[in-house]
Amino acid sequence: MLLHLGTTWLLFAVATVAVFGFFFGSALDAIMKDDGFGSTGNTLLFTLGFFVAVMVANEHGVAFRDLRLAVAWGLSGAFVLISVMALIKAGLARL
Q: Is the pTM of this model over 0.85?
């Protein structure tokens, strides 16, 4: 799905996800404070998690005929990545 997009649409998709990621990342930074990654770090993790989840789902044969399904997969991947990274950070802080 993402690999078949033109350059303009791909940049538009990345920009849109990054804007929403910054919104969620800022809110998460206000909640987590020192346990988080900062607004920019959270934004990068959300954006990376979103697109990796969409690409992985595509590789496993999930066809995104509906945009809502793609967004659901992407948001799930973003929140899973940020959760795993926060768990790793908390685990390393205990050492």
A: yes
